[in-house]
Amino acid sequence: MATSTFGKQFVVKPEKAHDFVKEMTKEVTPTLNSDFKSHLKHEKDLKEDLRRALE
C-alpha cells in the first residue's frame, strides 16, 4: 500500500497495513482551543523569541 503526504511518498508493507491504518485513525487531543489560540508551550516560546528578534 503506497501513500503520500506533504509531497513525500512512502510505502507500507502489506503485513503492516493493519497497524498503519489503526495508528493513523487514532483520535488525537486538539492543539487549538475554540478561539484558535494554541496551548502548546513551544509555540508560546516561539512567539516570544520572534518578538525579541524583531525589536
Written description of the protein model:
The protein has helices at residues 17-24, 41-54; strands at residues 2-5, 8-11. It is built from two helices and two strands. It is α+β, with helices and mostly antiparallel strands and 55 residues long. It has a two-stranded antiparallel ribbon.
What labels would you give this structure?
single chain, 55 residues, alpha+beta, two-stranded antiparallel sheet, 15% strand, elongated
Strand order of the largest sheet: 1-2
Content of β-strand: 5-15%
Q: Please estimate the helix content.
A: 40-55%
Ends: how far apart? Answer: 50 Å
Q: How many beta strands in the DSSP annotation?
A: 2
Average pLDDT reading:
76
Helix/strand/pairing class, anyone? alpha+beta
Listing every helix as H and every strand as E from the N terminus to the C terminus, the arrangement reads EEHH
Helices and strands, with pairings:
Layout (H helix, E strand, L loop, with lengths): L1 E4 L2 E4 L5 H8 L16 H14 L1
Antiparallel strand pairs: 1-2
What is the structure about, briefly put?
The chain is α+β, with helices and mostly antiparallel strands and 55 residues long.
